[in-house]
Design a protein that fits this description.
321 residues; 16 helices; 2 domains
């Protein structure tokens, strides 16, 4: 057995334990549960578009969904639209139907509720390509060949809007790998696959999480939405040993500012994708999905209890004195 003096202790005084993958199938499935759910949502979304376009999927004699990930119609009656695409069109001074604006508002409210960049990890089909590149990088320990600040994506966001205003078209939509991949899958193979292969190679050999984590302007847009979102990764300071297992798997490790998370009770950065990777590898169950309003209420209650306890202790000391 190791000497007890050699055991590393966390700031809470508890031993720092590494994450250990369970040996049982059920244990592994528990660790992989959010990954499985994410892939199910991503593939199901594509399947809905494909089935409606090619197999005529209907409900009450209405097509399940028509259009694409930028603008679509659910059950021939509910408009859905990408808010960032709509914003580009608005700054390009084009006229939009009220249905499209309503569709953008519906999507905006949805991602305000579930976390802005939940789009990136739970719906965006490009995420499957970049996750594969990241997986291969880890297997072969491939190092970055390029350094780029993650805030560069906000520059790309501004550039997309400026170009849209100057050219009179939604600039990013013309070159978006998301739109290209959707078209390739739904409407057949074409030259767009060359761009997607290039994106995979870029993430694999040039820069880890290069597209999603550093460049994508849509991800930057949803990061702004995510700053105000209700669904959060809750953080329990008392149980955290700072083992850093969460930062090892997080595609946006800079969001795991544990000091700030301890103050707020949750991961507050808008760049968090709510993918759940950190939750499943935490040996102490420190991280979990929670609602920001409930977290604030619980934090206030804990603070009140701490003040009451302190007041009780002070009263007790005065009585003894």
């Amino acid at each position: 057995m190791p000497d007890s003096n050699d055991v590393k202790l966390g700031p809470n005084g508890k031993p720092v334990r590494p994450f250990v993958m369970p040996e049982s199938i059920l244990g592994k499935l528990k660790v992989w549960r959010f990954l499985i759910f994410r892939r199910f949502v991503q593939l199901s979304t594509l399947l809905l578009f494909f089935g409606s376009a090619h197999w005529g999927w209907m409900y009450n004699e209405k097509p399940l969904i028509t259009g694409n990930l930028s603008s679509s119609l659910l059950l021939d009656s509910i408009p859905l639209a990408d808010p960032f695409a709509v914003l580009q069109i608005l700054v390009s001074q084009q006229t939009l139907l009220s249905e499209v604006l309503i569709g953008a508002l519906i999507i905006l409210i949805f991602y305000w509720l579930v976390g802005g960049r939940a789009w990136c990890s739970w719906v965006c089909p490009v995420n499957m390509i970049t996750d594969l590149a990241s997986f291969v990088r880890r297997k072969f320990d491939i190092k970055d060949a390029l350094q780029l600040r993650r805030k560069f994506r906000y520059t790309m966001l501004a550039l997309a809007l400026i170009l849209s205003a100057l050219t009179g078209i939604a600039a990013f939509e013309w070159i978006s790998p998301i739109s290209i991949l959707h078209r390739e899958i739904i409407f057949g193979l074409g030259t767009g696959w060359a761009l997607l292969i290039g994106l995979f190679i870029f993430d694999l050999l040039i820069l880890k999480d290069g597209w999603c984590g550093h460049i994508c302007p849509l991800g930057a847009f949803y990061s702004i939405v995510g700053k105000f979102s209700l669904l959060r990764i809750g953080f329990n300071t008392a149980t955290c040993t700072h083992c850093a297992e969460c930062t090892g798997v997080c595609p946006e490790p800079q969001v795991l500012n544990l000091k700030k998370a301890g103050e707020k009770g949750y991961i507050s950065a808008g760049e968090c994708t709510n993918c759940g990777r950190c939750i499943t590898v935490c040996p102490e169950d420190t991280l979990h999905f929670d609602i920001k309003l409930f977290i604030a209420k619980n934090s206030a209650q804990k603070l009140s209890n701490q003040l009451d306890d302190k007041q009780t202790q002070d009263d007790h000391r005065r009585q003894i004195a």
